[in-house]
Design goal:
This protein is of the alpha+beta class. The chain is built from twelve helices and four strands; from the N terminus they run H-H-H-E-H-E-E-E-H-H-H-H-H-H-H-H. A hairpin with a 2-residue loop joins strand 3 and strand 4. It is elongated, with a radius of gyration of 20 Å.
C-alpha cells in the first residue's frame, strides 16, 4: 500500500465510525487516537483537516484561540509571526535521544488563527493541568489494540454498506493488524481475528474489488510458502476473479 492509501483508509474509517455511533460514545475518541497513531508509523501527510469537524465534535482534537497557548505571553512575537500551518514540537536531529518524528504533534499545531491539540498529547496535558480542559475532556484516551479498532471499523462499515473499506483493512495482513510473531494456529484461535474474518465473509468484503497489489496473488503466496499468510489471504478472492 502507498502512504496515500493509508491516509485515505484512516480518514474513511473516521467518517464511518462517526456515522454509525451515538454522539455520546466516548470510545470513538480512543479509536481515533489509535488510528492516527497507526498512521504515524507511515510516511503520511497531516490529514486531520479532511475530518476536522468530526475530530472536534468527538473531542479527539481541541481548538483554541492562539493566545490561550500556555507559552503565548512569553513567546508572543513567535506565535504572532506564524502565518501558516506549523507543528510546534521542535526537534534536534543531532541529539543522542532523537527518535524520529512520530511525536511531532505532541506540542500541538497552529493553523492560523487557531491553536489545535489532540487528546493525550503533551500540550493537552498542560491545558488539563491549567484547568482549561475539565471533566470528560480531561480524561486521557484509553489505549486500545489496533485489531479491536479495525474490527470496530469493519462492524461500522458493514452497517454502512461499505465492504470495500472492510476488505482494505483486512488486506493489510496479520503482521500489521495483529502480530508478526503469531503463527497460523494462534491466529485461528484469536477471538478478534475470528470476529474480523466473520465480518469479511458476511458483508461481502471477501469478494470486494481491491486495487492491484492489495492482496498477494495465489502465485505469490505459493512462492512465499507461508502457511499464515496463505490462511489469512485465502478468504479474499484472487485478483481477476471478482
Amino acid at each position: 500500500m502507498s502512504m496515500h492509501d493509508i491516509e485515505d483508509l484512516v480518514s474513511a474509517s473516521v467518517v464511518v465510525l462517526d456515522a454509525r455511533h451515538a454522539e455520546h460514545d466516548d470510545r470513538l475518541r480512543d479509536w481515533f487516537t489509535a488510528l492516527y497513531a497507526f498512521q504515524a508509523g507511515f510516511d503520511c501527510s497531516h490529514t486531520r483537516g479532511r475530518v476536522l469537524d468530526i475530530l472536534l465534535r468527538r473531542r479527539h482534537t481541541y481548538r483554541f484561540p492562539l493566545h490561550e497557548h500556555p507559552d503565548y505571553a512569553r513567546r508572543r512575537e513567535f506565535f504572532d509571526g506564524l502565518t501558516e500551518f506549523q507543528a510546534l514540537r521542535e526537534f534536534d536531529e543531532d541529539a543522542d535521544d532523537f527518535a524520529g518524528y512520530d511525536d511531532w504533534l505532541q506540542d500541538g499545531y497552529l493553523d492560523p488563527p487557531w491553536l489545535y491539540c489532540e487528546a493525550g498529547t503533551a500540550l493537552w496535558r498542560r491545558l488539563v493541568d491549567a484547568g482549561r480542559l475539565r471533566g470528560r475532556d480531561a480524561v486521557a484516551p484509553a489505549r486500545v489494540e489496533l485489531l479491536d479498532v479495525v474490527t470496530a471499523v469493519a462492524e461500522a462499515a458493514e452497517r454502512h454498506g461499505d465492504p470495500g473499506l472492510v476488505a482494505a483493512w483486512y488486506a493489510l495482513g496479520p503482521a500489521l493488524l495483529v502480530d508478526e510473531l503469531l503463527d497460523v494456529e494462534d491466529l485461528r484461535d484469536d477471538p478478534g481475528v475470528t470476529r474480523l474474518r466473520e465480518i469479511v465473509q458476511r458483508c461481502g468484503a471477501a469478494s470486494a474489488e481491491l486495487p492491484d497489489g492489495y492482496r498477494p496473488t495465489d502465485e505469490q503466496l505459493d512462492m512465499l510458502g507461508d502457511e499464515r499468510e496463505t490462511w489469512w489471504y485465502g478468504i479474499l478472492a484472487p485478483a481477476g476473479t471478482r
